[in-house]
Amino acid sequence: MAGDHETLVFKAKLAEQAERYDEMVTFMKAVVKSNAELTVEERNLLSVAYKNGIGSRRASWRIVSSIEQKEESKGNEGNVKIIRDYKKTLHKELSEICTDILTLLDQDLVPACQTGESKVFFLKMKGD
């Protein structure tokens, strides 16, 4: 079982290097399910996975919002409608990722904390 755990952590590191954060999230969720009391390194990997996944989508949201404003100022209502529909997709993805990590924190990570340090880390992550 420890081999599986180590393999998942290695895969998460590999996904990080490849900047494939959605896959990194998948690997780190499996790490949590195998043992919710994470090491410092594993906590950091989990945090990086979610923050980068959310960060790229937030950047997309900002870019699309900027384009929306430009199209509105030009009076291109057809394009504005397309953009708003696309923003709904981005919003849904962001909401799903946030719900996912909050559930993982509430149901697995915080209850399994055995040290104050890890509890503070996860509660801060929840606040972020």
Describe what this molecule looks like in 3D.
The chain has helices at 2-17, 21-34, 40-74, 77-112, 116-127. With 128 residues, it is mainly alpha-helical.
List the helices and strands and how they pair.
Elements: H1 2-17, H2 21-34, H3 40-74, H4 77-112, H5 116-127
Series of H and E elements:
HHHHH
Low-confidence stretches: none
Estimate percent helicity: over 70%
End-to-end distance: 32 Å
Average pLDDT for all residues? 95
Anisotropy-based shape: elongated
Percent strand: under 5%
Number of helices: 5
Q: Could you provide a short overview of the structure?
A:
This protein has about 130 residues and is mostly helical.
For this entry, give a set of tags.
128 residues; mainly alpha; 5 helices; 88% helix
